[in-house]
Queue: 4 jobs
Job 1
Amino acid sequence: MTDLRQLRKRKDRGPAPKGTSQLSNASAIPLSIPTRDATKHKTLFDIATERQAELQGGQPFSSPSTADVKPAIVTTTINHDGTLSVPSGTLPEDSLIGPLGETIFYAITLTMLHFTLDVLVHQQYRQEIGWNMIIQRTAITLPILAVLVYFFHTRASAIWAQVMFLGLSVAAGCYVIYSSNVESYFAVMKRAPPLGTLWVWSVIEMRLEVALLSVVAVLGYFWWGGYSIF
C-alpha cells in the first residue's frame, strides 16, 4: 500500500526535470570542500581600496605640507622721513583697506568722540543742549580730523611723529585739567571737546611705552598743581 501511494504522488508531481536526480534521503546529498580561490567578482573591500587609492592619487582632501608653503617675503624701504615704503601688490590682507579707508574710520570715530564730549560738557554744567550748534561743530570737525589723520597716521611710526604726539598729548591733557579747574564754564564747554579728542587721538597713535610716558606726565601735572577732577 505504501509503495502504491508513493507512485501516485510521483505521478501527480509529474516527471522529474532533466539533468536532476531524485534523492531518497539527506545522506544522498553529495558533499564537497569549498574552494579557497579568489572570487571572480570584486568585494566591497576591493572597491573601497581602489577608491581610496584614487583619492590619494589626486589628493583632493590633503593639505599642503609646510615644506611646500613658501613664506611671504615683503621688501620694504625706509624713507627719509622715517616711514616705510611697501611695493604695490605686496601688502598683507589686513592692509587692503588702505590709507583712505583707515582715514575714514579714524575720522568718523574721533568725530563721534567729539560729539559725545560736546554733549557731556553741556550736561556737566546743566546747560541747555543746542543740537543745531553741536551738529554744526561736529560737521566742521569731521573734515579737519580727516586731513590730520590722513597726513599723520601713515607716518606715526617715525620718531619725529612719536615726539610730536607725545608733546600734543601732554599739552592737551594738561590744558584740559587746567581749564576745567581754573577757567569759566563757558571756556571749558568751548575747549574741552576738541582738546579731549586730540588728546585721545595722540595717545592712540603713540607706541605703548610713549603713551604710558604721556599719561605719567599728565598725572604728574595734575598732582603738582593740586587740581581736582570735580
Job 2
Amino acid sequence: MGFLVGLIVNVVLLSVPIGSTLGALFRIRPFENERKPEEKVHNARVTKSFCNEFHEFAQNKIGLNYTVNSNEIQAEPNSALCMSMTTFENATYPTNSTAPEFAFTWGYPFRIANESAPANQTKPLIHAFPQASIGGVVPLTLEDLGELTLDFAWTMGIGNTNAPSTSVRRLGAHLVNASVALDMYMDPDKSKAGDTGKAAFEMIVYFAHYGLQDPVGFGNGTVVTTEKLDGKDFRLFAGKNANGQNVFSWVASEPITEFRSDISPLFNNILDLKGVKGLKADTPTFTDYLGYVGFGTQAYNSVGNVTFWVPRLSMDIRKFGA
C-alpha cells in the first residue's frame, strides 16, 4: 500500500511543469526563521514650483520643519520671483535638521534707494529677501543657546536654471546686485522676537555680496571686531536700519559658497559689546530671545534673471546642556 501511494505522488510530481514547486501542490508551513522580503520605503523626491508670493511649509518628521517664503519687499511691473523646492515624499531627511533643496529665480530693475544722495553715492533698492526659515526650536533666550551649526552649499548664476558654480565675472557682466546671508532677529519680548518688522535687534551674516549694495553699518567703514569661523574671516559692522532696528552685520572677507560651523561665537561677540563707546547700535542681553533664523538671498536688481540654488542646507540649533 505504501508503495502504491509513493508511486501516485511521483506520477503527480512528474506532471508538474518545470519551475513549479511543492508549494503549488501542498500547503507548506514556512520555517520559523524564514527570511521575508523587506517592505519598500517610498521616499520619492517631489519638486514643486511657485511664482510671485509663496509661503511653503516643508516638514521633517524626525526634526526641524522649514518654511520657504518669498519675502518680497518691493514688487515691480515685469519683474520675476519664483521658487522651486524638492521635498522627500515621506518627509524623512538624512538628519533631523536637513532642509529641502530649493532655488529662487528672480529679476528686478535697478531702483535708487537713496534718491537724495549724490549721483556717485546712490545705492540700489532691495526688492526681496526670499529665504528658508526654521521653526520649533525658537524662540529661546541667548543664554540658553548652546550652538547653532550652519551647514550649506549654494550657487548663484544667470538665467532660470541652477548653475553648477558661481561666476563672479558673469554676475558682474549682468550688473547683479545681490547677497547671500543668514538672517536672525532678537528682542527682550518673546512675542516680538520672531517678528522681523518689530524685533529690536537683527544679526545678519553675509557669506557673499555682489554689486553696489552695502550691509547696514558697512558704509561708515568702522570695523567693530572680527571673528574666524570654519577658517574664514568675518568683520563686524553695526548701525541702525531705516526701521530703527539695531543691526549687526557680519561680513565675510570673500564669498563663501560652502560652509559648516557653529556660529554661536558671533552672538558672544555682540553680547560683549555692551557699554562700548562710539558703537552706533544698542546691544542685546543674555536674557533676550532669538526668535527668527532664516537663510537666503537679498535680491536687489540685475540685467536678466538670476537663480540662487541651495542643494544643501542644515541649521542645527541646540540648547545649552542638551
Job 3
Amino acid sequence: MTEDTQDDRDVLPALNNDDIKTNVYEGGFKTWECSLDLAKIIADSFTRGDEPQHERLHCIELGCGTALPTMTIFRQMICQTSSSEHHVYFTLADYNYDVLRLASLPNLLLCWANTIKHNSELAADDDLEITPELLKEFVADLRQRNIQIDFISGAWSERFVHVLDQRFPSTYTLILASETIYSPFTLNPFTKLLMHLLSRIGNEDSKALIAAKKVYFGVGGGMDEFLTILTSMGGAAREIAVPGREEHGVARVILEVAKS
C-alpha cells in the first residue's frame, strides 16, 4: 500500500455525522448512489458477455471508498481466472488511508471468501473471522490466479501518476470513478489525472466509466463543469443508460470517457 504524506490518524475521530470534511475525509466509508449505478452497469456487461477479453487488464478505481464497482469485476475475475492465461491488476485509490484499510480491503477479502469458499468460513451472523491462515490463503489464491491488488492513498497528484507509471505495464486499462466530481476545487486535478491515465495506456480500447450526479447542490461541481474541462483537455464522453433505474431526486449519469 502506497501512502501520500498526509496524516490520516485523526480521520476516524473527526467523522461524527459528516459525509465529507474537506482535506480531512472525502466520504469513503459511505456507499454512494452512483457507485451502485456503476456496479450495475459492470454486472450487466458481464451478463451480456461484454466483459474485457484482454490477456492483461488493469482496473483502476479512483476515489474507491467501499469499492463496490471494483468488487463487481473482482468477483467475476476470481470466478473465471483459474490459470496463468490472464493477468489482472487492481489499483484502488482513496484520499484516506483509513478507508482503504477499514473498508476497501476488508470488502475485497469478504467478497473473495464468500465467492471462493462458498460461505464455509462465515459464521452464523455472516461475520468473517480473519485469521493469519485465511490471509495467507487469500494472498496465495490471488497469486495463483495472477490477480494483483495495490492500494494508493492521497490526493490526485503527480506522485500518484508516478507510482502507476513505475509499477504497472502499459496494457488495457479500465478506470472507474463514482462521485468524484462534486467539488470545483478537485475537478481540474481529477480530469488531468484521468486524461494522463488514458494517454499513457496507448490502447484505443482503454476507457473510463465516470458515475456522478448531474448537479451537486451546495457544493458547486457537476457534469457540465466536468465535461467543459474534459473537452478542453482532449477528452470525449458519451452517456450510458442504466437499465431499470428509477430516478429520484437529483438526476444521475454514467459517462464513458476516452481520448477524443
Job 4
Amino acid sequence: MLLYRIEEDITDFTIALGTLQAFSFITVEKGGTDFEMHRLVQLSIQHWLELEGTINHYEDWEICEGLLPHVQVVVGYNLGTQPSLLQRATILNNAAWHNVFCGRYGVAHKKSMEANEIRLKILGAEHPDTVNSMADLAWIYSLQGQRKEAEKLIIKVIEIRKRILGIEHEVTLDSLETLVEIFMRQERWKEAEQLQMNILETNKKVLGAKHNATLETMANLGETYRRQGRLTEAEK
C-alpha cells in the first residue's frame, strides 16, 4: 500500500503515482487501493533513505529478513510454560516491528496482536510489557488507517500510564504524542492543537524550555497551525 503524507498535495501524489505506473515501477492490485512495488524501486528507496540518514542500519534489515523463516518456525512451536510464552511474545513483538519498518502492516498487526494477547493473559493489563504491547498495537492500527481502533487503544494506554506513572512521565507523554499523531491523521486539528499545548506546558515544566523534547513539541505545534492556515502563529 502507498501512503501520502498529510501535508502533501493529493494532486502531486496522484501525478507521481501515474508516472510510476507508466514506467511499470508499480502495479495496481485488485480493487485499485493496493500497489505492488518493483524490487528495484524498493532497493532504490532504501538506498536513498540510507543516504538521508533515515535508515542507519540497512544491513540489519537483511539480517532480519534472513531470520524471519526461523522466527516462523519458533513461534509455531506448542509452548506451554509461561516463561516460554512470554519469550514467544517478545519474538513476535520484534518481528512485528521489523514488518512495520518493511511496510508489511497486515503481518505486523497479526504478530503484535498475538504478543499483546499473551502478555495480557499472563502479566495482566497494567504490566509495563502489556501496556507497551498495547501502545505498539495502537500505532500499527494507525498505520493501517484504522483510526478508531488506534484512538481507543492509545487512550486506554494513556489512562493506565497516567495512573501508574503520572502525567509528567516521559512514557506517558510519548503516548500523548501518539494520540496527537492519530488526531492529525484524521485532520482533527483543534484536538491535536489542545493536546500539543498541554504536552508543551508539561515539557517546559519538567524538562525546561530549551530541551529537545520541548523544542520538538513546539515545532509540531507550529506544523499544526500551518496545516490550519494559521501561518502567523506557526512562524512564532
